């Protein structure tokens, strides 16, 4: 039962709240929760990455402006609903897209534009480091970006004083502390489970590898300090309050939890931090996180080895492309609808279009699509060309068109998951799915269950996402009992009574997806031909 407005108002005044801020690929979101983990207010800022000089990036000015606008939206909602201005917050957490490269000099100036996870420009470095460490280093990882810059002899490298992720940067900006949560850190450089820190032997290997460059830094000197969930990683400074709250009503001294990546907050938001549990996060990219019982038998370039926010090993299958092409097609249908003089709400349009997939042939009628807006690491593409392909014999109708676009959104993920389940025999007790796709009931859940061949659950909190997840981590830091594990805290305090809808894979859906995935693999040569022959032009 939710608190009444007077009780919530008093909690806000007393600072019995936690604020989560997450920088997603298309939206920056703030969520303020109370000490019962209920959302009090939220704010958001829409943005898009840009392809500039060969790199996917977000401008530093927009990062700061988006942070302020998302906070301001949440603050104004509190003022409207409770007629008070936020001055105190119990705790704050920052989350963002994992990986990427933000390099700063000793004055705190950004040396090159932020290079996001979406860039597939580091294949040479990633392959060399994987061979060197005998540990999979994906192209997205910060260390791959750093080493590729070294191989390319980029001019900024001698001036590097600090490298971090987007979440680490925002945390540093607000607290002055060069900190990072272990989950986000595991997307920068390999983590040693026994020490719950960067793998020391690999750090030394890297320093030896670049010794002839004579840079004035060692790797450990320029990486953020690793923190575990539940630990305090700094406080909001006077400068930080002015950055976050333009109205300057917020008081400094608010504790900050370790900044985390979107993978970690996704695990928290779906209560998937215990072994043999997993979650699927669906957005611009899609990834599955499976908490492992044991080490994998060999190195798989399709599988990232990362950690939960408390340091447990996780097998991560990350595909760079997921919902962008679906969004583009639905945008096209919106244009048609509006050209006919009609108006439609976005949620209604998505619901109608996605539900058409339930009427389709099980395999999508022989159609084929690749939603590759960018390179795709799992299938080996350094660039992307969105494609839709059919033969004269294909059953081309709206239902099959929508089904095939949903299928292909999980095509690369399926290839990676098959390695975990079929080659490594990883056992999964439960999969929780979250992301905007699951706001439309049934259809997304059915497709994912068919792809995974395992029951898939969606929680009532599925739409809350990573901003809520990092708010929970901030609350855990302040409200946990002594030695209370994150898993226990989530089980016994956060998710008690939360509605969960589980769906088992349908036999015809599974068979249809298997037929599709073979077509998907065989058609990859078409995608290769498109990349080789259709020149990509840069957009302003």
TrEMBL record:
Q: Which GO BP annotation is one of this protein's?
A: carbohydrate metabolic process
Q: Which domain of life is it from?
A: Bacteria
- An example Pfam family from this entry, by short name, is FGGY_C
The residue ranges crossing the membrane are none
Keywords, A to Z, come to: Kinase, Transferase
Named from the GO MF annotations, one term is: kinase activity
Carbohydrate kinase FGGY C-terminal domain span: 279-477
UniProt similarity note: Belongs to the FGGY kinase family.
What is this protein identified as?
Sugar (Pentulose or hexulose) kinase
Organism whose genome encodes this protein: Thalassobacillus cyri
Biological classification of the source: Bacteria, Bacillati, Bacillota, Bacilli, Bacillales
